[in-house]
Amino acid sequence: MLAEPLIQIVLAFIVGIVIGNYLPLSSFFALYSTIILLFFLALLLFLPCSARLSASPISEPKRFALQRKYISPTLLLFAFLLFGAAHLQNYRSISCFDISRFIPGEYSLVGTIIEEPEINKFKTKLILRAETVLSEKGKKKVTGKVWVSAKYSRDEIKKFHYGDKIKIRNANLSQPPSPANPGEFDFRNWLSGQKIYTIVTVKPSDLKKIGSGRSNSLLKYSYFLKAKIEKIIERSIVGEPEISIIKAMVLGQSELPDFIRKPFLKTGIFHVLVVSGLHVGFIVIFIALFTPFLSSRWKEGFAIAAIIFYCLITGAKPPVFRASLMVIIYLLGRLLNRESSSYLAIALAALILLLFNPEQLFAPGFQLSFIVTLGILLLAPVLIGKLPERIPLFLKGAIAVPIAAQLTAWPLVAFHFHYFSPLAIFTNILLIPLAGLDVGLSFLTIFFGSVFANIGAIFGASVYLLTAILFKLTKLFAQLPLAYQEIGGFSLRYLFSYYAIFILLFNFTEQIKRERAKVLCLSLLLLFNLFFWPKAATKMRAQDFAVTVLKVPDGNCLFLQFPDKKNGLIIGDEDNYRSVEKIIKPFLFSQSVGTIDYLFLDQSGDNHLGSLLQLSRHFKIRQIIDVPEASTSITYKNFSDKITLLSRKKYFLGYQKARENQVLIRSDLGYWLESLGSGVYRLTCGGKSFLIGMSLTEDSLSKLLSLKKDYSTSTLILPALPRKKKTLNQLIRRTKATEILLTRSTRKETLHPHLISSPLEGEDEGEGEVKVIFVQNQGAIHLE
Question: Where is the secretion signal located (predicted)?
Answer without folding.
Answer: none
